[in-house]
Amino acid sequence: MLQERVETRDGWVSVAVHGDPDAPGIVLVPGVMSDARTWRHVASALTAWPSVTVLNRRGRNPSGPLGDGYDLATEVADLGAVLDARPGPAAVLGWSYGGTIALLAAGEREIPHVIAYEPVDPEFGSAALPDLAAADAADDTDRAVEIVNRQISGYSAEHVARLRADVGSWAVLRRLSRPLYAELRALNTARLPERLAVRAGRVDLVVGAESTGRAPYGTALERVRARLGEHRVTELAGHGHLAHVTGPGDLARLVDSLVG
Asked: One GO MF term, please (predicted)?
């Protein structure tokens, strides 16, 4: 795995390149509460592309800070800079917030294939924004992790207690929560175009079977679908929103199967 720095219009991001760094391939865009490291098992399991580039979005070491004026357009521009830095045209796989970024990028530039796993929209998680703002102002990352799991994702108090009991994993979640408020605010205040991904050669959506038809992720997916032209939806059996954690090999095999 090779780590590279990519200059953006007002900062920099890092990428982790798996496979042949000189070959075209696929770019992975993680969502909130994740980074290139949490997606490494998916990246290493993909076989349909000679290279897999994982974007470490802003606010995640060693990428730069979110910066003043951060919004969804910032993320789209960063993805564009990464695509420009990679050899040849690249497919893009985006997860959650990263899926939204990928679909928006495909409205501004030609992308041959966009794969979005449970992308979200501006309505997603909006009720939790005031509490996240308070946690952010207090620099209370424990509270931020609780909010994203309980109020946004809808997990039980027992689930959060199990997460907290794993000291190492909880520390990672606290670190990943630092940009969370700014990211959700950027999503909630965005105005999506009436039609998404109009310059994509092909659009595939993926939904975990545990999310299908259910709030918050399955319902957000349906709202995103209403803004898409021709696309295909594939269900990943046995998993929900966190398939990159619960079944990275299963997710990679499904994504590989979407080629061709």
From this structure: hydrolase activity
Helix 180-188 and helix 72-85: axis angle, to 10°?
Answer: 100
pLDDT number for residue 122: 98
Query: Model confidence over 11-69: pLDDT tens digits?
Result: 999 999 999 999 999 999 999 999 999 999 999 999 999 999 999 999 999 999 999 99
* Distance, CA of 182 to CA of 179 (rounded, Å): 6
Given this model, what pLDDT does residue 172 score?
97
The pLDDT score that the predictor gives to residue 66 is 98
**pLDDT for res 208:** 99
Long-range contacts at 110-113 (CB < 8 A, ≥ 24 apart): 110/199, 110/200, 110/201, 111/83, 111/197, 111/199, 111/200, 111/201, 112/200, 112/201, 112/202, 113/200, 113/201, 113/202, 113/203, 113/204, 113/258, 113/259
Cα distance between the two ends of the chain: 26
Numbers of helices and strands, H then E, in the chain: 11, 8
Measured in residues, the chain has a length of 260
In this structure, what token pair is assigned to residue 82? 């990464």
54: nearest Cα among 67, 44, 64? 44
Structural domain boundaries in the chain: 2-122+191-257, 126-176
Residues of the chain below pLDDT 50: none
pLDDT reported for residue 88: 87
Nearest in space to 55 (alpha carbons), one of 76, 79, 88: 79
Residues pairing with 117 in the sheet: 95, 206
Q: What is the pTM of this model?
A: 0.97
Single-letter residue type at 191: R
